[in-house]
Amino acid sequence: MTALDLSPTPPDLDRAAELLRGGELVAFPTETVYGLGGSALDDHACARIFEAKGRPRFNPLIVHLAEDDDGREHAVFDDRAERLAARFWPGPLTLVLPRAASCRISLLASAGLDTLALRRPAHPVALRLLATLGQPLAAPSANRSGRVSPTTAAHVREELGSRIAAIIDGGACAVGLESTILDLSGALPLLLRPGGIPLEALEAVIGPIGVAAKPAGNAPRAPGMLESHYAPALPLRLDAVRALPGESLLAFGPNPPEGFAFLRQLSERGDLSEAAANLFAALRALDRPEFSGIAVMPIPEYGLGAAINDRLRRAAAPRIQTNTDKE
Ligand code: TXA
Ligand code: MG
C-alpha cells in the first residue's frame, strides 16, 4: 500500500473522511506536528494506529475534537478545564480529564485508563477535516515509535508512507513541537509534557502547576516522559561550544562557532518560537551517516525553550530502552 496524496481541498477532505469512516488511517497537519488519525470511536481504527506506529498498547492516544463542546460528552470538565479550554483552544494544549459516563471513545484510545487526553487543534485543515468527519479523531504524532515527530507531509511519507491510507499535505507545521500535556484528573494540576504552550502561560490562568516526577519502571503517565525519545540515529551532544571532528551543528542565535562539518540554524535572531518550528526538521537534516554526531548550542530554558530543551535532552539520552518502553 502506498498512501494517497491528498490536498486540503473539499473533495479531498471528503475522501479522507470517507476513508476514516471506513476505519482507515489518514495523516493530517496540525499546528504542532502531523497527526496519524483514526476514528476515536472505532476500536479497530485505534488498534491500527498502534500497529502502524509500532507503539505499545499501554501508551494512550490524544483525542482531537471537532468542537470544544464535543469534549463534554466524553470527559468531565471542571472549572480549571473550562478556563483553560476557553483561553487556549483551539491550540497546542492537551488536557487529561476523567472519562465521562457518556464517553463513546474507544477504550483502546485511552489504553484502558479512566482518563482521556483531549485537544482541539488550531490548524484550519485539521479543523475542516474534523468538521467534515463529524467525529473525534485519535491521533498520535505521525512517526514510527521512538522517532522524531514529522512537521511536513514528506516526513510522514518517509515514516509511514507504506502503512497508512492517505496523507493530507497542509505544508509545514507552524509550532513544530507537540502540545503541552496537562493532567487535571487530580487535585493538583500536573505538567506531563512541556510543549507548545509554555507552563508560565498556563499558571497565569489556573495558578501553580506541579511537574510530574519521573515515572518508575516502564509505566509512564505520558510516554513523552520517557528518558530516550524523539531519537535521531546519531548521538547528540548538548551545550556544545566547540566542534569535535566530523560533527554537525544545531545552531541557535547569531555567530555560531566554526569548524563544524555542516550547520542547521534554528533561529539566527534567537527567537524561541522560530526555533521550535524548525527543531524536528533540523534534527532530521543533521541525522546523516556522514557525520559523527550532532552538536547542539545552548538554548535558554524559559518559555518554549523549556519544551525545546526537553526534546533535546530526550534525543540525547542513552538508548537503553526496550521496545515496550518506547512510544
Ligand atoms: O501536538 C500533539 O500533541 C500531537 C498532535 C498530533 O496533536 N500529538 C501527539 O501525540 O504528540 P502522541 O501520541 O505522540 O503523544 C501523546 C501523549 C503521550 O505521551 C501519551 O502517553 C499522552 O499523550 N497521553 C494520552 N492520553 C493520556 C492519558 N489519559 N493520561 C496521560 N497521558 C496521556
Ligand atoms: Mg509522539
Task: Give a description of the structure.
With 327 residues, the chain is α/β, with parallel strands linked by helices. It folds into 2 domains: 4-218, Alpha-Beta Complex (DHBP synthase); 236-316, no CATH class. The chain is 28% helix and 17% strand. An 11-stranded mixed sheet has the order 1-8-2-3-7-4-6-5-9-10-11, sandwiched between helices. Strand 9 (180-183) and strand 10 form a beta hairpin. Mean pLDDT is 91; it is low at 215-220 and 321-327. Magnesium ion is lined by residues 140-141, 149, 327.
Sequence-ordered SSE layout with sheet pairings:
Elements: E1 4-6, H1 10-21, E2 26-28, E3 35-39, H2 43-53, E4 62-64, H3 70-74, H4 79-88, E5 93-98, E6 115-119, H5 124-133, E7 137-138, H6 153-160, E8 166-168, E9 180-183, E10 190-193, H7 199-206, E11 210-211, E12 236-237, E13 247-251, E14 262-265, H8 272-286, E15 293-296, H9 304-316
Parallel strand pairs: 1-8, 2-8, 4-6, 5-9, 10-11, 12-15, 13-14, 13-15
Antiparallel strand pairs: 2-3, 3-7, 4-7, 5-6, 9-10
The structure holds threonylcarbamoyladenylate and magnesium ion.
Could you give a quick summary of the protein structure above?
By secondary structure, this protein is of the alpha/beta class. The chain has helices at 10-21, 43-53, 70-74, 79-88, 124-133, 153-160, 199-206, 272-286, 304-316, and strands at 4-6, 26-28, 35-39, 62-64, 93-98, 115-119, 137-138, 166-168, 180-183, 190-193, 210-211, 236-237, 247-251, 262-265, 293-296.
